[in-house]
């Protein structure tokens, strides 16, 4: 398999991206890479070009660029060229740590939607804490769409199911709808409609509404929500975890010698705690609902996160997730059309 | 001042409620109490009835009762009778640790809205970590309304401003709109409308869009959002903080003698950390936009939280917050009407 990489995206590009790709190349013998970017800059960091091809990109989409406009106008940018390579089939997946909006736009407009999926959704895998038999869950959408309809959230459940099954290898994943209470009638009219659609779907193992307080406790294997709420919840979890860690640090620093000595003895434990909350270990955010893997990592990603994310992309391809999802949508075209009509008529 | 207390609400009622009220009575010489509930049960725990009057309530609204229906039908319940005492002016505020929906319904339908405020919003005060000159912020709405309009969020900013000013004593509080990015054009159309309304309002110290990742870092003194997102964010912060604390505990327990010994030395530090994240220290959730303080604490509240919450209610009354807010709405009736019209016409 071949992965098209935006070598210029992210705060530490191209250095950390190139180093991460070399780590991945050494870890995964079956993966080839195309690095899109400024050839001279990439060569500065590339030690060994075995299974790594450099493709010159004259332009770069900056973090500050207006995403859709940038993708339309910067035709020679590393993002557009990498996404185009996937569209044309010379690469199997697209990876970038760059401008999120531009990556989503490139996925949507260049790689293209799976026929039957109305809106792709962005997925992140998050840790589950202190639960036997579950160490992570998937949340979708975490920000691809700020304005989400009933049909979109219903389709997120289908996509999330295939991701949890094929990539996270969860058998018959439990799907939960993020809501402001567990009762079936919680939330606004749209949430009640989504709840009833999922409850009625025999192909979905729906566990009902889940509250954000219970996500890290393993309330579900797949949590579906609109992109606005999902984004807010994801960033709340991130921010709170970071605040707790800094709170621990400062509290210990202000607590005198005994505490400092105690902290020394806990060094390994604290390291483990940081690791458990670091969800970059699960790779990046995946745009589900497009024809090939489009995966985005934090702009602050270092080489090891890049490598983890390549491992994740490799798993998506090897697991046949996207063809399987595609086949399901084709086989169930009539049911999915009936659901669309039922939503329209209920308006 | 006199506070009407639902003595039967909460997991540990009436015991912890009664004990908390006695603590508050002893702490605040200027506060009197009316305890609504089953007289015989209350008397079991009441040591000294100085400034505490018991009012018999034959019915109890259970946690599982359908809120609006319960408030309409259980006329002799402690919640309805306590709220009615406030409506009739025999008490100045209403406190309960019971059924949240029923408390909100009693506030809305019995105590009543401030004229000019279209929808009351539920407010919670949360901690800010590791920032000089800011130890907390206010979020509104955290769940009174699952279906929120532009006008409501705009009015939350006004209410939140008065709460931060009068109760948290923040001068010229910074108001932020919770959004999925800091740029002015983030979010859906409604968020852009709210953003522009707040930016144009000379009486609001608007700091723009804030992301949930930055809330505990003190992004604003008042964070306004729709009740659905606010509820999800609040519960994400709670859940993540709890998961982190349990993660620390289990990691240490699995880390052998050295770590356990280190943890012993850190006991005080950990205690302090738990305290910093425990926002019950700031009291309960306040329904803003009604004619008198209507305050709700966690169903799991113990006596000390009940006491803290009474201190908070005392501050709301003493600070004149509600009359001040009311006066502002009266004085700016024309501007507020213009804003309503502008929202309607922009549809």
Notable traits:
homodimer; 347 residues; alpha/beta; Isopropylmalate Dehydrogenase; 2 domains; eleven-stranded mixed beta sheet; 11 strands; globular; transferase (chains A, B); phospholipid metabolism (chains A, B); phospholipid biosynthesis (chains A, B)
Description of the molecule:
2 copies of one chain form a homodimer. With 347 residues, the first copy, chain A, is α/β, with parallel strands linked by helices. Chain A has 2 domains: 1-115 and 289-319, 3-Layer(aba) Sandwich (Isopropylmalate Dehydrogenase); 118-288, Isopropylmalate Dehydrogenase (3-Layer(aba) Sandwich). In chain A, 48% of the residues lie in helices and 15% in strands. Chain A is built from 13 helices and 11 strands. An 11-stranded mixed beta sheet of chain A has the order 3-2-1-4-11-10-5-6-9-7-8, sandwiched between helices. In chain A, helix 7 (189-200) links the parallel strand 7 and strand 8 (205-210). The termini of chain A are far apart. At the A-B interface, helix 8, helix 9 and helix 10 of A face helix 8, helix 9 and helix 10 of B.
């Amino acid at each position: 398999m071949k992965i098209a990489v935006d070598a210029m995206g992210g705060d530490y590009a191209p250095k950390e991206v190139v180093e991460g790709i070399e780590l991945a190349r050494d870890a995964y013998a079956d993966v080839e890479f195309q690095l899109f970017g400024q050839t001279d800059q990439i060569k500065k960091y590339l030690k060994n070009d075995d299974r790594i091809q450099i493709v010159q990109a004259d332009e770069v989409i900056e973090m500050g660029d207006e995403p859709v406009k940038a993708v339309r106008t910067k035709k020679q940018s590393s993002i557009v060229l990498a996404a185009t390579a996937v569209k044309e089939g010379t690469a199997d997946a697209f990876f970038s740590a760059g401008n999120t909006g531009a990556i989503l736009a490139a996925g949507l407009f260049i790689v293209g939607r799976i026929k039957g999926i109305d809106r792709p959704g962005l997925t992140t895998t998050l840790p589950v804490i202190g639960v036997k038999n579950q160490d992570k869950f998937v949340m979708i959408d975490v920000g691809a769409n700020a304005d989400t309809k009933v049909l979109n959230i219903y389709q997120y459940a289908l996509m999330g199911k295939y991701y949890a099954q094929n990539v996270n290898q969860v058998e018959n994943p439990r799907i939960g709808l993020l809501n402001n209470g567990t009762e079936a009638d919680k939330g606004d009219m749209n949430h009640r409609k989504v709840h009833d659609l999922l409850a009625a779907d025999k192909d979905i193992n729906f566990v009902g509404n889940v509250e954000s307080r219970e996500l890290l406790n393993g309330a579900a294997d797949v949590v579906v929500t609109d992109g606005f709420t999902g984004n807010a919840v994801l960033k709340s979890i991130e921010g709170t975890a970071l605040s707790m860690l800094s709170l621990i640090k400062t509290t210990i620093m202000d607590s005198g010698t005994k505490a400092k000595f105690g902290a020394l003895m806990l060094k390994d434990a604290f390291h483990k705690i940081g690791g458990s909350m670091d969800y970059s270990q699960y790779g990046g955010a995946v745009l589900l609902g497009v024809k090939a893997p489009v995966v985005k990592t934090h702009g602050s990603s270092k080489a090891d996160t890049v490598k983890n994310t390549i491992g994740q992309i490799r798993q998506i391809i090897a697991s046949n997730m996207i063809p399987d999802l595609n086949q399901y949508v084709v086989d169930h075209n009539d049911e999915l059309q009936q659901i669309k009509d039922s939503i329209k008529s209920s308006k």
